[in-house]
């Protein structure tokens, strides 16, 4: 296997050059994009009474992981092209080819290094980006005000039962062990409100729910009567209280898969979430494609005057991949593409395109 790579010294040299350029470009992109983003958001943050520089820096800390995750593949592409252009201009690629190495062998150190970047990217997304995204989305919902403490409970949940509406102040537990607290049932005929049933708590009871210490307020008479324990809402399942809208970007891979399994058991549509689940794998792995797509900048005579053109072609191939990837993922969210195809089709397509370009270059 070691014969597939250049010498150890050359492989380390290429890998170090590639990583240096990739993360230098990434750092520049993060600084510029974060500064531009902060110009639009800092006013909203500071408009909240009590917010100051600490909250601005908190926003920066939550936003930077998102920017890094989004633009790391772009940085890998540009880092690849800069590395290969430099080696081509210094005739290092010519020397490697003259020693009997194929184009695949020349690119092998970059491919292995890109695989390491992909693994680090996946771990970074799982451990940091998902949490930062979830926290930032919650903070935006309260318009950068104080965040409520999240204990895993659901609050202010509304569920429809035929014409009736059921509001629960707090939901605890999962499955048949769900407990409801602060219950209001708006009993209606069509759109006309007849009465409101108020109860302190409720638990699962057979096909429906058993609520205790219930009172019924009659709209027509304006009187409240104590009705004690009632069996209500036979058509409401436990998951309707516990399964809220799932944000795929805010959940790591394992938690998102568990949420998808729960939604499937509840009969909810999951195609868009399944596409996002597969994309959590194909997204970081796109780093491996970048040396393949940018390889067109490595081969050819530098003094021919076409080095810049080949670099532009490499960038165009890389950016076309990102366009195709976003388009396929959008089509998957709309249900036009199967989830697996939406996540992996661009990756496989451009892997074949990159390999074709490389083989033509070899010839």
From TrEMBL:
Intracellular or extracellular location(s): Cell membrane
Segments crossing the lipid bilayer: 64-85, 106-124, 281-300, 307-324, 336-359
Pfam families: LptF_LptG (PF03739)
Main localisation: membrane
Biological processes annotated in GO: lipopolysaccharide transport; transmembrane transport
InterPro entries registered for this protein in UniProt: LptG, LptG/LptF_permease
Keywords, comma-separated and alphabetical: Cell membrane, Membrane, Transmembrane, Transmembrane helix
Endpoints of the signal sequence: none
Keyword presence, rRNA-binding: no
One GO CC term on file: ATP-binding cassette (ABC) transporter complex
Topology in membrane: Multi-pass membrane protein
Record-linked NCBIfam families: LptG_lptG
Protein name in UniProt: Lipopolysaccharide export system permease protein
Organism per entry: Sphingomonas xinjiangensis
């Amino acid at each position: 296997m070691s014969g597939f790579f250049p010498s150890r010294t050359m492989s380390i040299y290429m890998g170090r050059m590639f990583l240096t350029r990739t993360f230098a470009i990434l750092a520049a992109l993060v600084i510029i994009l974060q500064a531009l983003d902060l110009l639009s958001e800092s006013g909203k943050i500071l408009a909240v009474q009590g917010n100051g520089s600490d909250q601005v820096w908190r926003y920066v800390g939550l936003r930077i992981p998102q920017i890094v995750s989004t633009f790391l593949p772009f940085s890998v592409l540009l880092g690849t092209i800069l590395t290969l252009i430099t080696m081509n201009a210094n005739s290092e690629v010519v020397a490697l080819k003259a020693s009997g190495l194929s184009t695949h062998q020349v690119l092998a150190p970059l491919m292995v290094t890109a695989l390491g970047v992909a693994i680090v990217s996946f771990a970074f997304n799982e451990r940091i980006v998902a949490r930062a995204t979830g926290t930032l989305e919650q903070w935006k919902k309260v318009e950068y005000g104080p965040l409520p403490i999240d204990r895993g409970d659901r609050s202010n949940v509304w569920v429809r039962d035929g014409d009736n509406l059921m509001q629960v102040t707090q939901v605890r537990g999962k499955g048949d062990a769900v407990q409801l607290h602060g219950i209001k049932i708006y009993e209606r005929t069509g759109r006309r409100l007849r009465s409101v049933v108020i109860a302190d708590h409720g638990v699962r009871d057979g096909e429906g729910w058993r609520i205790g210490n219930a009172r019924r307020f009659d709209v027509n008479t304006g009187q409240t009567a104590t009705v004690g324990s009632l069996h209500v809402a036979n058509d409401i399942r436990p998951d309707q209280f516990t399964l809220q809208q799932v944000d795929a970007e805010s959940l790591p891979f394992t938690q998102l898969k568990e949420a998808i399994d729960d939604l499937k058991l509840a009969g909810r549509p999951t195609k868009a979430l399944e596409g996002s689940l597969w994309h959590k794998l194909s997204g970081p792995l796109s780093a491996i494609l970048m040396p393949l797509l940018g390889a067109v900048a490595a081969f050819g005579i530098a003094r021919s005057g076409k080095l810049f053109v080949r670099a532009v072609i490499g960038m165009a191939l890389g950016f076309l991949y990102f366009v195709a990837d976003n388009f396929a993922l959008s089509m998957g969210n709309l249900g036009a593409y199967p989830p697996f195809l939406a996540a992996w089709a661009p990756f496989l397509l451009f892997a074949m395109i990159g390999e074709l370009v490389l083989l033509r270059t070899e010839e």
